[in-house]
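Quick one:
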Amino acid sequence: MFKRKIVAIVSVVLIVLSALLCFAACNEGDRSEKDVTVYIGDKTFEASTTADNLHDLLKELKDADKITRYEFTVSATGAFITQIDELMQDATNGKYYYVWHDVDEFALKSVYQEEFAAYNPSRSEVTEEDGTKFVTTSFKGLKLYWSGVGVSSVPLKDGGHYAVLVD
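Output:
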């Protein structure tokens, strides 16, 4: 009887450990090498990285002295840019940092809402896809989506394009 309890306990522990290892492996992110293009204002950066998101890539660019300055705040919803290179916000004149990308995932795109149109970036356009209107822009010959999330939640995709602009 005692032996069965030990075997049962060991079995449960092994099952729990296996589940935890599987969970950790699934949440590790996409650590494969990705080639991406990042635009910061008028500057263009080609990067090969294993970073999972735009925030981590911007930190890598700063650490490699490819950009001179990258400052951010972190809130419950993620990291937000407060200063990047010489690209400056001008809150007095309503000019703020906006992040754009070509990641075609619904949750990462800002949905156009008529009642908030006055708050959209000045360069924004409205593009309808499958009955949903998204805030987009044409930049360097690309169609980019206005990010619906902060930089730490914008995933990097191989071949992706990302822009940090002030509008």
